[in-house]
Design a protein that fits this description.
- By secondary structure, the chain is mostly helical.
- It is 63% helix and 7% strand.
- The protein has 8 helices and 2 strands; from the N terminus they run ααααααααββ.
- The chain is elongated, with a radius of gyration of 29 Å.
């Protein structure tokens, strides 16, 4: 009975994954950044670069390496590995706005709607070009609409939370006590206590059933962890849907 809804969910997920307007199969190349040279400056022209400048330049070079790896993985359809490389590249060079755009594209291909929206939002905040902001806003509008539709289609009933398990445990305990009392009581003994326990257990069982089926199941929470090397050590990133 639920197969049509499942098929519809697959269709919507496919539209979300491949419906990005104007998205190419290859990730766009990063903007060219000027690296700091270690060569001695000409007399009277400039001062030697500082240690911080050299570190920034080295991080940019590493970021480009991870970015190119991400592009290759993306072209090969290895989206999860591409995400790790792109996240690492962005942790090394926060000025690369293309990285946020590419992260949004890859997360969208993976069906990570919340993470794609987050990446596109950060991309829009980092650019000043009006045309680019309008294009990104259209993508965000489409993804938010798809997220709402997917949530409504995947909604199902059956909440097994602490309240449900507590009532269920009480039902089992009361029913067990009532049955044991019935089985061990002497002939002619008062049957009221066993009846009370058994009736209580049955009533709690009915309540537990109502608590489970009358409420919607909670939304799933996702956590994604990314890690990669940097010039000074390593970078760890956490993201998810909460």
């Amino acid at each position: 009975m639920r197969r049509p809804a499942f098929f519809s969910s697959l269709c919507v997920a496919a539209l979300v994954a491949f419906g990005s307007a104007g998205a190419a199969q290859q990730l766009p190349a990063p903007p060219v950044t000027s690296a700091v040279s270690d060569a001695d400056p000409e007399p009277g022209t400039s001062t030697p670069p500082t240690a911080a400048a050299r570190a920034n330049a080295s991080n940019r070079e590493l970021a480009v390496i991870h970015y190119e790896r991400g592009r290759s993985l993306y072209a090969a359809g290895r989206y999860r590995e591409a995400v790790v490389e792109l996240e690492t590249a962005y942790s090394l060079d926060r000025t690369g706005t293309n990285l946020l755009l590419n992260l949004g594209m890859v997360h969208e291909r993976l069906g990570h709607i919340d993470l794609a929206i987050l990446a596109y939002q950060r991309h829009m905040e980092s650019v000043s070009d009006p045309a680019e902001r309008i294009r990104t806003q259209r993508i965000l509008t489409r993804l938010r609409g798809a997220r709402t539709e997917l949530a409504s289609m995947s909604r199902h009933h059956g909440r097994a939370d602490g309240l449900f398990w507590g009532v269920t445990g009480g039902a089992l305990a009361a029913t067990t006590i009532g049955v044991v009392m019935f089985a061990t009581q002497r002939p002619g003994a008062d049957a009221t206590p066993p009846l009370v326990f058994t009736a209580t257990g049955v009533s709690l069982g009915v309540l537990a059933t109502v608590l489970y089926f009358a409420r919607e199941a909670p939304e799933r929470r996702s956590l994604f962890v990314t890690a990669g090397p940097t010039h000074d050590g390593a970078a760890l990133g956490l993201a998810g849907s909460f």
